[in-house]
Fold this protein.
Amino acid sequence: MSEVVVHGILGSPYVRSVRAILEEKGQHYRVQAMKPGEHKSAAYLALHPFGRVPMIEHDGFKLYETQAILRYLDAVFPEPALQPRDAKTAARMNQVMGINDWYLFDIGRVIVLQRIVGPAIFGQTPDETAIAQAAPKVPTCIGELNRLLGAGPFLAGEQFSLADLLVAPQLDYLFMTPEGRSAMQGTPLEAWLKRIIARPSMQATLPPEPLRRAA
């Protein structure tokens, strides 16, 4: 079976999720790294008409949308299985993944962009007004993820799943900001994040050094 090619910007948390699942599966892959802004080029738009990252190529099959990619990779590389068989547990996994894409990312694309990405990559000064508008959403999102995590080891219960792979890169960035850190410190979610980020798959896919320094 041919290698998986991951197209994306290395600082993207969604690209990290896709790389991390391939690390978890022990599968060889190659990253076709792009510079910021290159995802809007004509060449990339021919692969992904919405101009977002990541997208993958595998055996001539092209696929974009991170949740679709994660489910595809879990299907074609079945060990270890990262989707629960129990209907309720699978539904919880899907719910958390939806929270990530609809609410958590919406917070991160403002706060993380202003606090970390903008200063590190573009030399920008944080827009405190934009941050102040996004910050009130943080406790609600973090509080709900804490509630769903409960006393369990993982976001979907007893099994490490796609939900953990999708959420951890987003929260890793958010925890680097004052707004995220104050909401997560001392909570079960902080302990969960530290355990997940310590996994070899996450350590093998750390954000680029300039972004870590900016935090």
Remarks:
- The mean pLDDT is 96.
